[in-house]
Amino acid sequence: MAASKDDDRPTSDDPRALPAWLETRKRASLVLADGTTFAGYSFGHPESTSGEVVFNTGMVGYPESLTDPSYAGQILVITFPLVGNYGVPSEEKDEYGMLKNFESDKIHLKAVVIQDYSFVSSHYTANKTLGEWLKEQRIPAIYGVDTRAVTKLIRVHGAVLGKVVVQGSTPAEAMEFEDPNLQNLTAQVSRKQKEVFMPGPAPSPKDAAVSNGAPEAAASKPVHILAVDCGIKNNI
Q1: Using CA atoms, how far apart are residues 5 and 122, in angstroms rounded to an integer?
Q2: pLDDT at 1
Q3: Which residue among 4, 66, 108, 145 is least enclosed by CB atoms within 10 Å?
Q4: In this structure, are residues 96 and 197 in contact, taking their beta carbons and an 8 Å threshold?
């Protein structure tokens, strides 16, 4: 089992160490266009940003969600309360040269907002912590936010623009609310040139008939499929 840790929390028995560490955490906040503010702490890239605030209710799968091109330009609020406990897997590629554990080759969203962050990850596939990965990809992130309250607000009022403001970075008043719907997101997340993925050798007509439960005559030639990339995910 792989385990890793990405923070500087004290490990000594000094009772003053933990309160001191708590006071030195970098503060951050989620500021919505209606004026609502949710305070928290930074655990990703320490830079302020803005975008459209959306939510995801999945209990697992944050590596896939963060690399999903459909989240481009958005600030993702994860409603499940604990995030980061199983870390981030390796960038292993499949037989077609695509990353096996992610939906694309990078994180597309603008920022991540969660309730409780697990600084220590422990899972046999873990290669790094979520915080380490976000810093590598230069993606801001906040923990300590009541994400279900944010979700209820979005469900009632619809899509809302927001800012992730990190202590020591650009202040909220110096940033505009950026609306990704005014951008050509398809051009940003789609391939710039044609790619061809060839499957392995096709089974013999007899083997195909047996595996499909169909007559031998049903075995056909390879099928050619055309996919138009408007932000397609690897699993498609």
Answers
A1: 9
A2: 46
A3: 4
A4: yes
User: At 78, is the pLDDT very low, low, confident or very high (cuts 50, 70, 90)?
Assistant: very high
Mean per-residue pLDDT, 194-214: 66
Q: How far apart are CA 203 and CA 69, in angstroms?
A: 34
Query: Which of these, 136, 67, 73, 139, lies nearest to 100 by C-alpha position?
Result: 67
In three-state form (DSSP H/G/I as H, E/B as E, the rest C), the secondary structure along the chain is CEEEECCCCCCCCCCCHHHHHHHHCCEEEEEECCCCEEEEEECCCCCCEEEEEEEECCCCCHHHHHCCHHHCCEEEEECCCEECCCCECCCCECCCCCECCCCCCCCCCCEEECCEECCEEEECCCCECHHHHHHHCCCCEEECCCHHHHHHHHHHHCCEEEEEEECCCCCHHHCCCCCHHHCCHHHHHCCCCCCCCCCCCCCCHHHHHHHHCCCHHHCCCCCCCCCCCCCCCCCC
Average pLDDT of the chain to the nearest whole number: 88
